[in-house]
Every structure is written in structure tokens, then in C-alpha cells.
């Protein structure tokens, strides 16, 4: 699959078949994440492959409501997909030189982990698998469930499995609305 085609045809998948995902396929999507670029090649990311049903159920309970009484739409996917991949980050690495922040933008771990996770989702899609970036959850609760050590945090997670739905395309803003030339135009 061409890269642009993969980018354009990937959809967030929130309903999965029970079909298991074999280890080789999991390794392939993790390999895609591993090869992402990162701040000074610090590779602050860590990935937890969760297959245990109880843990997936606990993670689903760490998801936050969209608004009062409206559950996170990915809740059932986290509970029921055959695999959940949880992305963590080591703090104080990305955006730092010799332990000191190198810019006024703080810790860049979100950026690096996002690059890795998008690599992962695109390769998953190219292999016929579904994913959805999930960010709306209680990160401290998720860290507790997975025994993530001090100095690391949980950034995002995605279910991984064979899609059991064909979601509609979510529209994107047209380029003139989001691209400026030479200077920002408001
Ligand atoms: C940073 C981030 C966090 C997200 N968190 C959630 C989430 O908690 N639950 C969910 O169902 N979808 C989540 N999404 C998925 C978005 O809703 C989805 O990508 C967007 O609506 C566009 O749809 P598409 O991925 O099918 O193109 C998240 C996406 C991103 C990039």
C-alpha cells in the first residue's frame, strides 16, 4: 500500500472481530513504531502489549467520559479487541539536552510517542488491522493498572485487531483553511 493511500484510507476502528492477532503481526506493527524519528534519537517511548482480558477490562474502566453520561466511544474496543497496545514515555528525555530543557516547549514526549503510534496505526492498517488512538483516559489510573514505574507516564493506547465495521470518512478541513504562506494569516 502506498503511504498516502494508507494515510487517507485509515479510519478509527471501534468494533473488532474476535479473530486473534498473531505474534509476527504484532512484532511488525511494533517495528513500525520503533523506527519513528525522535528528539536527538532519545526514543523515550515504551510499549506494553496487553492481551490479558482482566487487564483490558481494567483499562476500559480507566477511560474517561466524553461528557457527563457519555462514555468514551472506544470503551468497548479497549475491553474486547484481542490486543491493546499502550504507549508510555520516559519523562525528561525528549526536548532535553544534558537534563536541561532545550526549548520553551517543555517535555516533547507527546510528540515523539505520537509519531511512533501513527507509524504503528498506518502499518496496522496496511496489514488489514484496525486501530484507534485513545487519549481520553485517566493516565495515572492506567499507569497503576500496568505497574508503570516512576519517571514514566502513559500517553495513549490503541486496540489492535481485525475490523468489524467500515466507519464513514470523518471530514478534514480544506488546505486554504489551515495553510498560510510566509506569515500566519488570521
Ligand atoms: C490524540 C488523539 C486522542 C484520541 N482519543 C480518542 C478517544 O479517547 N476515544 C476515541 O474513541 N477516539 C479517540 N481519538 C480518535 C479521533 O476521534 C479520530 O481520529 C478522529 O475523529 C478522526 O477520525 P478517523 O481517525 O477515523 O479519521 C483520538 C485521536 C487522537 C489523535
Give a written overview of the molecule:
The chain has 186 residues and is an alpha+beta fold. Helices cover 35% and strands 15% of the residues. The protein contains seven helices and five strands. The chain has helices spanning 3-9, 23-34, 53-62, 75-80, 109-126, 139-146, 175-178; strands at 45-50, 83-90, 96-97, 100-101, 152-160. The strands form two sheets. The chain has a three-stranded antiparallel β-sheet, sandwiched between helices. It has a two-stranded antiparallel sheet with strand order 3-4. α1 (3-9) crosses α5. The longest helix has 18 residues, at 109-126. The chain is globular and about 50 Å long. It starts with a helix and ends in an 8-residue tail after the last helix. The mean pLDDT is 97. The structure holds flavin mononucleotide. Flavin mononucleotide is lined by residues 11-12, 14, 72-74, 132-136, 167, 170.
Q: What's the SSE blueprint?
A:
Layout (H helix, E strand, L loop, with lengths): L2 H7 L13 H12 L10 E6 L2 H10 L12 H6 L2 E8 L5 E2 L2 E2 L7 H18 L12 H8 L5 E9 L14 H4 L8
Antiparallel strand pairs: 1-2, 2-5, 3-4
The structure holds flavin mononucleotide.
- Report the major sheet: 3 strands, antiparallel
Average pLDDT, all residues: 97
Poorly predicted spans: none
> Which small compounds were modeled alongside the protein?
flavin mononucleotide
Within the largest sheet, what's the order of strands?
1-2-5
Q: How much helix is in the residues?
A: 25-40%
Strand content: 5-15%
Supply the helix-strand structural class: alpha+beta
Number of strands: 5
Shape: globular
Output the number of helix runs.
7
What Rg is obtained from the alpha carbons, in whole angstroms?
17 Å
Distance between the termini: 37 Å
Q: What is the H/E order?
A: HHEHHEEEHHEH
